[in-house]
Amino acid sequence: MTGTANGAAEGFAHAYGYAPEGVWAAPGRVNLIGEYTDVNEGHVLPIALPHRTRVAAAARTDGVLRLRSREAPGGTAELSPAALAPGGVTGWAAYPAGVAWALREAGLPAGGADLYVESDVPAGAGLSSSAALEVATALALTELHGAVCERPALARLAQRAENAFVGVPCGVMDQTASACCTAGHALHLDTRDLALRQVPFDLAAHGLRLLVVDTRVRHALADGAYAARRAGCEAAARALGVRALRDVPYGELGDALGGLADASLRPLVRHVVTEGERVREVVALLAAGEPRKAGPLLTAGHASLRDDFAVSCPELDLAVAVANEAGALGARMTGAGFGGSALALVEEDAADAVGEAVTAAFAAAGHRPPRVFAAVAGGGARRVLRGEG
Q1: CB of 38 closer than 8 Å to CB of 275
Q2: Tell me: the pLDDT tens digits for 19-52?
Q3: DSSP structure string for 265-282
């Protein structure tokens, strides 16, 4: 289901009986390379998608926070921002409620408001629908209540909402991409210090296209698998005597692996360290105007996520293998895995054939039809409509 800023405003008016003060929108993201490096204080390279979550909103003076979503049946959730606490809200409403809580915890004004949410970011597809909701909510609440918050700090607060309030130990990449990406660029982010570099990513100028394959296999990051991988990485860093696995030099990986007494941690370290090197190489290729050469690095990243980090699934492996067999320059899963989406770097004139091959392979395997679309690097969160309120 798609939407527009005007549609969100109309949904708000239908839900609450008056016009919103504005509509704020934040995008989902697809990560080109750098998976699970963000939870190890490393480097990532996402782009913002054209798919967006829109939050129509208006401030209230009575300290009440009301939440409603087009995508979630069940009516309106009514909460008190002053009484919010981790674990106190469940379901989709925990994400915007968590943002209100995080803003107040940071000392920012985040009083009452009416919020109406609509989104065309596919939920559970590994495209950061939760981060888009968090960032759009954070931008709406801060602007409604006159708070000043720079975008990287806003992303950190949105991440805190998901970590501490919702209970998902995600890194900061998704929220930063949603808040800080610029159109036509990939975002090279150092997740330790939030240093940002906008890297040119105009594939059309090179006769290329980036396909996203939503396998329609839905993952649940709160089920513990994601947390277990993160805990394993933290245990490995402690064993190696470093703050985070980003501090293990690529050239010293062999020594680091040999120094780990717990053999179960070695594949995690190998993935994180080699993935960090792949990010560095892809950034250099894009900066040099040679995006085609990034293809094999994408495929190598998928093999590492599949074999060392063990976060792929049969549908993702099939999408990657068939895309490469059909002529893609490279392909890999994107996002946290356990389902979700894959991406494929393809020549523009081969895009249809690659998409059709993947769709046919899914049908032959008895899987649900995938959703295949081209991703163009878009801009980050912004106010998209000023209302009459």
Answers
A1: no
A2: 999 999 999 999 999 999 999 999 999 999 989 9
A3: GHHHHHHHHHHHHHHHHH
Interval 235-252: pLDDT, tens:
999 999 999 999 999 999
Catalytic residue among 120, 174, 214, 307: 174
The residue among 91, 126, 28 whose CA lies nearest residue 335 is 126
Q: What is the C-alpha to C-alpha distance for residues 121 and 28, in angstroms, rounded to an integer?
A: 6
pLDDT, residue 89, reads: 94
Grouping H, G, I as helix, E, B as strand and the rest as coil, residue 234 is helix
Active site residue 202: no
pLDDT of residue 111: 84
CB count within 10 Å of CB 332 equals 30
- Which among 124, 125, 152 has a CA at the least distance from the CA of 138? 152
Name the pTM for this structure: 0.92
Express each pLDDT in 251-272 by its tens digit. 999 999 999 999 999 999 999 9
54 and 136 in contact (C-beta within 8 Å)? yes
Whats the size of the chain, residue-wise?
389
Name the token pair of 189. 């982010």
CA gap 32, 70 in Å, rounded:
30
d(CA 112, CA 144): 10
Enumerate the H helices of 161-263 as residue ranges. 173-180, 225-240, 253-258
Residue type, 161: A
Distance between CA 293 and CA 324 in Å, rounded? 14
